[in-house]
Amino acid sequence: MRSIIPFNTDWLFTPADVSADVPDSQFEPITLPHTNKVFPYHNFDNHEYQFISTYRKRFKLPEPRDGRRLFIDFEGAMIASEVFVNGVKVGDYEGGFTPFSFDITDFVDETRENLLTVRLDSSERPDIPPFGFVVDYLTFGGIYREVALRYVEPVYVKDVFVRTKDVLTKSPSVEVDVTLMNHSSQPVTITLSSAVATADGLRIDNDSNQIALPPNQEHVFTVVGLTALGQVELWSLTHPALYTLELEVRHNGQQIDLQTSTFGFREAEFRKDGGFYLNGERVKLIGLNRHQTYAYIGAAAPARLQRKDADIIKYELGCNIVRTSHYPQSKHFINRCDAIGLLVFEEIPGWQHIGDNDWQGISLRDVEAMILRDRNHPSIIMWGVRINESQDNTALYRATNDLAHKLDPTRQTGGVRYFQNSEFLEDVFTYNDFSNTVVDPVNMPHLVTEFNGHMYPTKSFDQEERLVEHALRHARVQDKQLSMSSVAGAIGWCAFDYNTHKEFGSGDMICYHGVMDMFRLPKYAAYFYESQISPDVRPVLRAATIWSMGDRSGGGNDPLTVFSNCDEIDVHVGDNHIGRFQPDRAAFPNLPHAPFTVPGMQLWLTWGGKLPVLRVQGYYNGQPVIEQKIDCSPQPAQLLLLPDDLELNADGADTTRIVFKIADQYGNRLPFAIKSVSFEVEGPAELYGENPFPLVGGHAAMYLRAGRNPGLVTIRAKADRLPDASVTINLI
Q: Is-catalytic flag, 48?
């Protein structure tokens, strides 16, 4: 039978290219995912991760092979891997964003300890995408995704492609391409049974076929008999119903393989009228781009953090689509998008540059690897088969499109460019529009795949009027695109700030383009996206101000901008009722929930007067549903320590974010309360981050990574002139 065993613990690492005779004592014990170097969150040189490192893992087979084939599966290692078993090279792989596997059956010893070695080159090599010229993001280094040991019988299921058909009719069906591998030297006749099950395990249809497999070959068999499904629940943004396909392989009456694949019934299509349609209904797309990197740990984020990013984009920012700029991202992130109903536009690695024929060959392989890994995901609605913002290349992009359509005829392709007169070979014209509006499409409808970004970088600790203008620029573009029937939607640049090369970004090599900072904490632009959430989901009320006299040019707070999904807001300054206000429909006629503009606020903060509290109350259907208070006192009131999770798995990898914030008495961050915050950790866990942390901007975050021993972990934070803060997390 098939057996997949996580292979992430008990690795050894050294940041050097060493020979096999170097003793283990010269290595550091680590758990995957792993970054080859931990960094501060800014002010470091990207050359620091560009070196060759060596990973080792000594292992005995965790279970007898019993005639099965044995594979080692890597989800991702940055950026060029050579893999050895017991000193013998079993393969190499160039590229850091797609998975790869090696058959190690003939290289392991079943009777003794084996040695798995990975020589990993994390240099920004010009022969491997995305490199060859400048790139506006960092790749970091290390075996930064998970590894597994996979046992399979000589006859096994190699790949599964699930295609739903006629999902909007009364007779939906499932068609499945099953790639079967016969590693044996004899022809084999097997029974392939397939079944469709609901999320609660109820089987709703099944099928069985006898298949003759020739020796030492793979064979693709199409299952077409799954038609008696009855009424199915569609996968949608609000109800992302998931089903499971179960495939069983039997030989001589014995089960020899069992494979499951998750999928959804849905129809997704970009039409020639410019609209995107999900299950036959037009949906305006509002989204953000996502880089996969994090402060301190680079790209080496385990499953919990990957899932959290999807939750932030869907639930905190209210988006319905994310673009995986500019590469395939973690399977955990994509799985979570499936589970919560977040659409995905996934694209191949690259940034403006196209290399030589060998480089292009790797790019074509990336197209294949991306689609083979992810084509069963209902959240993915389009494949990006063009190097982001590259020039036209007819031969390459005909090849990438043809390959995508061959591997997955159910999805359309897009190719992101930043000039409208580009050669159009894909199915959907995807366009980066930095006009600070939305230009009318030329000759064809399109999807805006980036806007704003480098046109208006904004830090969390910038002057208030810049933070407000940053948010309003996002609001204006989304408002404009919502009015244009020939534009399917707009995906802003970008969700989170990110580290970059010296040719880009700010003086600390951070691109401050996000609506959130690198710690996934909101700027005012995040408040705009959040305010587009339906009030029936939850009320949102965010005043875009720190409520001080002198942060804006000219002083004062006039006008006050409030991002909310409420029908009306009441504004009070101290005991004074400023008035009740409606959304600014004159400036934002197309948004579901226009921002509020409150004039006349310069009158209420005066020299020598009392420092009044700002109080804003939101009304929905005539009833007060939410309130925000902001203190005008310049004195910090509290140090807050806010973990995302209070329980972690004691597996050596599970990680949670711990936000710390200097706040007023109501919990609002104080961006100019610049203090050093120090931390103590007690218990079996490790804290990633600068300690002490020179806090600028009022809030930041650390990451707590669980050890491998269960127990309680207590984190304490201290800052001058504030009470200490602490939190306890349980490792199980």
A: no
